[in-house]
Design a protein that fits this description.
146 residues; alpha+beta; two-stranded antiparallel sheet; 4 helices; 20% strand; flat
Amino acid sequence: MGVLDHLFDLFEITPKRKRRKPWQTVEIKVKMDCDGCERRVRHAVSSMKGAKSVEVNRKQSRVTVTGHVDPNKVLKKVKSTGKRAEFWPYVPYNLVAYPYVAQAYDKKAPSGYVRNVAQALPSPNAADEKLVSLFSDENPNACSIM
């Protein structure tokens, strides 16, 4: 039986499984003016393979797609509707150390958001950050005199 099993394994036709893309959330900035624009973008993205949920926020000009999708393919699909689109360039205001740095503050950003730039984040070697954390209650190696 060993030979027959070996021959059966050689000639067995099994579909090769593709690796699934990882579960991720893709956020895209799209300028939408009316219900028709919103519907067109929503339909284009929700028809993609692997897209599980699609949220469209016209007030923020934001489309959020969650599922087993490729971010570049989602962006390309949104652009195919004729709309100008880019990846979501903003981060919440409270996550940035210096929100009013030259390139971070954007008048077009939705309220509570600033542009995600490297200069808005504090440098890890900043002296003032080290001094603040030196006497912090969360630091287990803080000064024990207090």
